[in-house]
Amino acid sequence: MTDAPTQADIDREIAAAHAAYQRRTADGAPVEHHPRRDYAPYRSSALRHPLRPPVTIDVSRDPELVELSSPAFGDRDVTDVDNDLTRQHTGEPIGERITVSGRLLDRDGRPVTGQLVEIWQANAAGRYAHRREQHDAPLDPHFTGVGRTLTDAEGTYRFTTVRPGPYPWRNHLNAWRPAHIHFSVFGTAFTQRLVTQMYFPHDPLFPHDPILQSVTDDAARQRLVAAYDHNLSVPEFSLGYRWDIVLDGPRATWTEEGR
Amino acid sequence: MTHGAHDDTGGARTALPTPSHTVGPFYGHALPFPGGEDIAPLGHPDGITVHGYVLDGAGRPLPDALLEVWGPDPRGAVPAVDGSMRRDPARGGHLGRNGVEFTGFGRIQTDADGHWYVRTLRPGARGRHAPYLSVCVFARGLLVHLFTRIHLPDDPAALAADPLLSRLDADRRDTLIAVAEGRAAYRFDIRLQGEGETVFLEFQ
Ligand SMILES: [Fe+3]
């Protein structure tokens, strides 16, 4: 009973959760753009999700809510080279250089400008420069895998980095994460806060990964996958991936002075 | 956080949201920054300390949770000043806060014992609300972050009149009110699941 589940066990649970979602929507339930916090195939969620439903707050009744404002970040918080993960050491990191860029938008498609975008990732061999990392792939002395930037006047962000490798984890026997870059973004309201992951197109690990598959809606899951964009590729330097981010959650309907 | 495409405001809402994912276990060298828990300017007379544990459904503290705290100044004004995580253009590292300005924002990683603390300014009231600090909880295993609020216990009349707190049963309400420990220190535990589960909020 204490044996780790196999990939086949997890694949069955993933399929069951998909089927349950399809039954719900067929019966008229709303589209679920986000994972359920009690998604069982991701084992770490078992003791870390609330059992009670959240208490709903209607922000339209209350423009004074602290959560309708957002922390300010500016040029003091981010230096110019923080968005280039290939230039943080004396030498160049090993791996396939990539340019990752896109726009930060709200649910109305309006750009979110001047806000903080942070990323972190494994190196090209699939290893994080983190003390708790147990995977024995090589560390790269020239790669930390951490970056940050502010969105510009069009809501655009841009990073230069290397393509991360897939890596094993211990959710189940033979569990491998598809290659991904972690993103943390702020909107104009704290209610729009988002932490997520960007994936690369056509990764064969997609169907087996309980974190990606926790997004049970097919279209929503597809929105986590970047598109190769030849126009973003830098000649003689890097391959380009485009990934737009759309923040959920309500924002203030008025414009705060000076923001 | 589960809006359909045609629900609120009657406006366009044309863009479909990017799904949330867990922060995972390896954000520790990316998101926390030195002095993240010290939001209050040094020596400010309105400084308070709030501390506690983040606990799972078995009552075990989480050594890998990340909290973000966001609150107004003692007059109730929301800070619009940057500089929470000032960077050093020369070395590329963090400079930390400048010790004078109040940005209202902090980020705290629970320690190996699952304990966290924040030193900030006593929040002021806004609108009809009792004063509170907004908290966003991230953790490995948590696929979508959780919002909650820290209220201070010092003004029972304000708490009784608060539009959110007055909607809740007494036992649930108490999960949103810190316990005074004297000398401007307060205890606030966050229970993710089960007995005494903290009230978490969804904004629509
Ligand atoms: Fe990861």
Automatic annotation (TrEMBL), chain A:
<keyword id="KW-0560">Oxidoreductase</keyword>
<feature type="domain" description="Intradiol ring-cleavage dioxygenases">
    <location>
        <begin position="100"/>
        <end position="128"/>
    </location>
</feature>
<dbReference type="InterPro" id="IPR015889">
    <property type="entry name" value="Intradiol_dOase_core"/>
</dbReference>
<dbReference type="InterPro" id="IPR012785">
    <property type="entry name" value="Protocat_dOase_b"/>
</dbReference>
<feature type="compositionally biased region" description="Basic and acidic residues">
    <location>
        <begin position="24"/>
        <end position="40"/>
    </location>
</feature>
<dbReference type="InterPro" id="IPR050770">
    <property type="entry name" value="Intradiol_RC_Dioxygenase"/>
</dbReference>
<dbReference type="Pfam" id="PF00775">
    <property type="entry name" value="Dioxygenase_C"/>
</dbReference>
<dbReference type="GO" id="GO:0008199">
    <property type="term" value="F:ferric iron binding"/>
</dbReference>
<dbReference type="GO" id="GO:0018578">
    <property type="term" value="F:protocatechuate 3,4-dioxygenase activity"/>
</dbReference>
<dbReference type="InterPro" id="IPR000627">
    <property type="entry name" value="Intradiol_dOase_C"/>
</dbReference>
<dbReference type="GO" id="GO:0019619">
    <property type="term" value="P:3,4-dihydroxybenzoate catabolic process"/>
</dbReference>
<keyword id="KW-0223">Dioxygenase</keyword>
<protein>
    <submittedName>
        <fullName>Protocatechuate 3,4-dioxygenase subunit beta</fullName>
        <ecNumber>1.13.11.3</ecNumber>
    </submittedName>
</protein>
<feature type="region of interest" description="Disordered">
    <location>
        <begin position="24"/>
        <end position="44"/>
    </location>
</feature>
<comment type="similarity">
    <text>Belongs to the intradiol ring-cleavage dioxygenase family.</text>
</comment>
<dbReference type="Pfam" id="PF12391">
    <property type="entry name" value="PCDO_beta_N"/>
</dbReference>
<dbReference type="InterPro" id="IPR024756">
    <property type="entry name" value="PCDO_beta_N"/>
</dbReference>
UniProtKB/TrEMBL annotation, chain B:
<dbReference type="InterPro" id="IPR012786">
    <property type="entry name" value="Protocat_dOase_a"/>
</dbReference>
<keyword id="KW-0560">Oxidoreductase</keyword>
<comment type="similarity">
    <text>Belongs to the intradiol ring-cleavage dioxygenase family.</text>
</comment>
<feature type="domain" description="Intradiol ring-cleavage dioxygenases">
    <location>
        <begin position="35"/>
        <end position="125"/>
    </location>
</feature>
<dbReference type="GO" id="GO:0018578">
    <property type="term" value="F:protocatechuate 3,4-dioxygenase activity"/>
</dbReference>
<dbReference type="InterPro" id="IPR015889">
    <property type="entry name" value="Intradiol_dOase_core"/>
</dbReference>
<dbReference type="InterPro" id="IPR000627">
    <property type="entry name" value="Intradiol_dOase_C"/>
</dbReference>
<dbReference type="InterPro" id="IPR050770">
    <property type="entry name" value="Intradiol_RC_Dioxygenase"/>
</dbReference>
<keyword id="KW-0223">Dioxygenase</keyword>
<feature type="region of interest" description="Disordered">
    <location>
        <begin position="1"/>
        <end position="29"/>
    </location>
</feature>
<dbReference type="Pfam" id="PF00775">
    <property type="entry name" value="Dioxygenase_C"/>
</dbReference>
<feature type="compositionally biased region" description="Basic and acidic residues">
    <location>
        <begin position="1"/>
        <end position="10"/>
    </location>
</feature>
<protein>
    <submittedName>
        <fullName>Protocatechuate 3,4-dioxygenase subunit alpha</fullName>
        <ecNumber>1.13.11.3</ecNumber>
    </submittedName>
</protein>
<dbReference type="GO" id="GO:0008199">
    <property type="term" value="F:ferric iron binding"/>
</dbReference>
